[in-house]
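Lab meeting minutes (informal)
Scribe: AK
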Amino acid sequence: MTDAPIAARRSTLRTHHGDTFDDPYEWLREKESPEVIAHLEAENAHTDAETAHLAPLREQLFQEIKSRVQETDLSVPTRRGDWWYYSRTEEGAQYGIHCRTAAVADDWTPPVLEPGVAVPGEVVLFDGNVEAEGHEFFSLGAFDTSDDATRLLWSTDYEGDELYTVRVRDLVTGETFADEIPNTGGAFFTPDGTGILYTTRDDAWRPDTLWLHRIGTDVAEDLQLFHEPDEKFWLGAGITRSRKYLVIGVGSSITSEEYIVDLSGDVTAEPRIVWPRVEGVEYSFEHAVVGGEDRLYVLHNQDALDFELVSVAASDPQGERTVVLPHEPGRRLLGMDAFRDFATVEYRSEGLERVALLDYATNGIEDVPFDEPLYSAGVSGNPEWHSPFLRLGYASFVTPGTVYELDLATRELVLRKQVAVLGDYAPEDYGQQRAWATASDGTLVPISLVWKRSFGEPGSAPRPVHLYGYGSYEHSIDPGFSVARLSELDRGVIFAVAHVRGGGEMGRAWYEDGKLLHKRNTFTDFVAVAEHLVSAGITTTDRLVAEGGSAGGLLMGAVANLAPAAFAGILAAVPFVDALTTILDPSLPLTVIEWDEWGDPLHDPEVYEYMKSYSPYENVGDGAEYPRILAVTSLNDSRVAYVEPAKWVARLREAGATDVLLKCEMVAGHGGVSGRYNSWRERAFELAWILDTLGLAEA
């Protein structure tokens, strides 16, 4: 075992509400300091040395992942206007290639594309591999074609900081315009294709301004269309599927406000407000034409915890409301998509996503049925206002990603494509089920389990378990397929998801019970799930590894302090483990926006005390017997700074933890490395560490 890097202690005093905290490792925040870079490189060298024995297993895992993937493949084409748009991958290439081929006017059945077979009439719009040449990191942001299909815009990030540069190409001549718009967020064409609407961020990384750029003019002349001054609100924009309205949306974690601009007139016209913001009221809307009248279908939570759907006149959105789908406790309405002749509603009930068709005339809904007990499904890839088909995405823990189209005339679900899993994969060889743990306050916490049947049913004998959790922002961890996960399942590991409070699996109340001054429920729920897996005979503490990322990394840090003996190992990816320091500093990216989720410890002493009681960095216990810990981060992460896990690891070592590793990608962002082969190698690294911790490195 090599000697771990020991960070120097340098006192930095932080005083709030009469409490002073001496932070010995805050100096690691100086990202440009050669000393900090040297420390991170020493951490990487230490991690490399400590995991060198796993190199053969990492390579084996990478090859297993690669062998299951159809490396040369194509997506199901999506129709927009007179073209079918699709992407394809080629064996050995890191990034996707975006293409199109001409459509036949009245034929809405997508062409069947075969891997390795040339597509008749293919036009390559954008090759990510060409654009990525010479760069260690590459991310494609915005990607849009003009309504007349003659122009393409795209944006790229070569640093991982999520600041994108927009460029434009003439698809008739192939010429790339001189226009370059740096430091953008989202971007899309105006309906006439002569302008670009785009957002920019403030110094705190908050999208706050919408701009109009006229192609061929100097960016310095761009027109500001909208600015949101409130530091708690972010801004986004888009165009309704009907192409009738420009929508400008501003929102915090708990409050929304939307504006519209009628695109039959000037895009620079004064935006018209839909509903004025009211603290704690969230809403979104879709435009539909019903009985010849422009209507806005508004999904909102005013006096409706799990949301209600109403319809208002677009000419007077603050006027009379017609209830379309009333609030129904336990049925969390998630979203709506409006089309010319019908709409879809997505909602969550009993922990699962549902998709339903909405009849404009009767306001009745009709569920789209799916057979598996655990699955995820949603509406996706439907840009056209009118189509005879509705496209849906579907997956489960055992069913690979699947594209269906619902024939709206016959209600038949037509299979368009299922992701190929090469080798001998058979879904029936694997099982999935829901279990329940009882939290300390009596709440039943759902658990999803997936395993390979040949090793026996869960509980028949203790098995290694990989337990995943998140539990923030009402984000649900829904059943999904993973090729990489098969390498665990095929070695006898049971994969489990703890659907803890703070997520959205069981409705809005589930989320409310795991945020602000109820945040501890997220952590104690996860510990309760771990304890249930042991008491039910599914695993033992020495064969249980936990994983979480970002806000789920906060969960990992918290449970490491709460119940270090409950786990053999903890993998924390881009972990939010120095939460209090971050949320106290409004100059840091996104901090003020986050106050609605965590509370405002800067101005509220109760929130300060509560957050200090659970923030992982402040609560590392001297002399505690911590499990093995692997923290993974990225130097250019703009959401959770590298300094958080760097400080946490330094403090853990100071407290006596003996098997703690930090892996810092020096050229990457919040999502890790770019390129599919690179991401497979990154996951193989993590899986090798997990399997080694579970005692399966030789399996």
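Next up, CB showed the second protein from the same session:
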Amino acid sequence: MCGITGFIDSTTTERKAVLSRMADLIKHRGPDSDGYYVDDSAALGFRRLSIIDLDHGHQPIANEDESKWITFNGEIYNFPLLREQLEEAGHTFRTDADTEVILHGFEEWGEDVVNHLRGMFAFVIWDRESRTLFGARDPFGIKPFYYQHNEKTFLYGSEIKSFLAHPHFHKAVNERALADYLSFEYIPGEETMFDGVKKLLAGHFFTFREGKLSIERYFTPEFDEDPTKSLDEWTETIQTCITESVDTHRISDVEVGCFLSSGIDSSYITNEFASKTSNVKAFSVGYSEEQFSELSYAREFANHIDVNFSAKVLGAEETFATVPDIQYFMDEPLPNPSALPLFFLTKHAAESVKVVMSGEGADELFGGYNQYREPLDYALYTRLVPVPVRRLLAKGAVHLPKVPGRRFLTRAAKPLSERFFRNQYVFSEAERLKVLKKGSLAATSAVPTAERTRALFRRCSHLDDITTMQYVDIHTWMMHDINLKADKMSMAHSLELRVPFLDRGVWAVARRLPTPLRVSKESTKTALRYAAEKRIPRATARKKKLGFPVPLNGWLREEEYATKVREAFNSEAAEKFFDRDYINGLLDRHLSGTDGYMKRIWSIYCFLVWHEEFFIKRTEVVA
């Protein structure tokens, strides 16, 4: 697990010094060592967090004749098997690191090397003879990869902040993306909040040669149900694949711990890991406000499976003080409140271990979100009531007081592509135009949220509504929010976070599950829970999903923290991007006791804090 950064051009002067400064800005991703390759066209930088082959796995690594060089962030869990195949094909290895397997695999299989890799990765390979840069990102977007191709230079890196040290990087807010951010809480697609900087999407590789960039997709998660198996057969299959995935993810030359909440995902993973490893350390986080803390459940489970349990208890003052750091390490503004406890959880774990197992991905693959049950609630109504009648009833319901059934009628009249909760997760299209400064580029360039996901919905139009929601989440929410947050918050503290659910073998099983074994009116993650029951207490396997509850709603009503938000809402940056009267009105309504405004307030506040970090406070890092 490491950080990579670099550039391709022939005009940058003092190339090694520039590259070194770029790598220094992501030192938190790899504090153990650094490494560089520089020639007249390419500059590859690397920061290392030593996990495998501690003494010899330094990067960049070259092939036998040093015509190709690689820098790599991630872990390849099947590298011993691939190494055997490559040695049989005649390749010579200098290290015992997984990095070298990718390099020789590229020599042997070319671009198809990505389809041989089982793990999480973002890497680049420089071919010195053909002057070609090849790079790729793992199938589920566990590891990040950013790039900018301007007139002079091709920049790339694990984090955008590394670009700040390059003289050809022009730092500016991508105002056209602000409306999307306000609706989704992240920016869907390849755009970022930095103008001109893009994400390489999950399951894609690229080639950069002679100033031309080409990008291709090599992996698309597609559901394909197998209705022939019984629940008992699926339970056994799931158990086998989870056990195998956790075993594969064990590989490490340093100690590995586990994150442990009170829910099924982390409990299942921790139990599987502890079943074959002694003295396992498990880490959790909670709050001084006990109604938001589940530490007692996590501690009880840890005692049940005999692992060493350690927890961090958070308060408002400590949590609020870290918001600027969180937004800085995120690279882009992310207002997901769960980033707050995750930041502290990773920091706490990093005091004891270098690697942790975590449960991300189970909800998207196995159907864990409560909103996936919504189509079942609408099924009878949408089947019996024609669309024109539904629309008429919805039109009338809009003008009714907020009585039971109003939301049902309005949402059931819309197609899934318009009503899907993620599409207007924070602000509706109408309200975000009230939030944005009138006449601003952000307001005038706003695109309907449905347009951002329309292509995705078209691609899965043959699927039922529940599976469609999972498909869209895997391609958006999981990549741009869940996985990004997990990577950035863990790497902020030099901690490698592994996700056994997001494994090719696990996906091969999850994609075949019939919808009723994923989601039913009574349960989410139905088959996964049955499988977990074979290994952990039924109460834990059946526990309802809570996620990372955060007492943010109450904190934002306390004078000290409301004042911090008010100051940001009245700042020059707020004046530039938002209607200050409107956003202050949101805060006023929240302070008056009206519910439903916390997420909107926090979204705006996080953007303003991010803007201050990158455009006001930390301008000194720009070369």
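CB comment: The first strand starts at residue 2 and ends at 8.
No objections, moving on.
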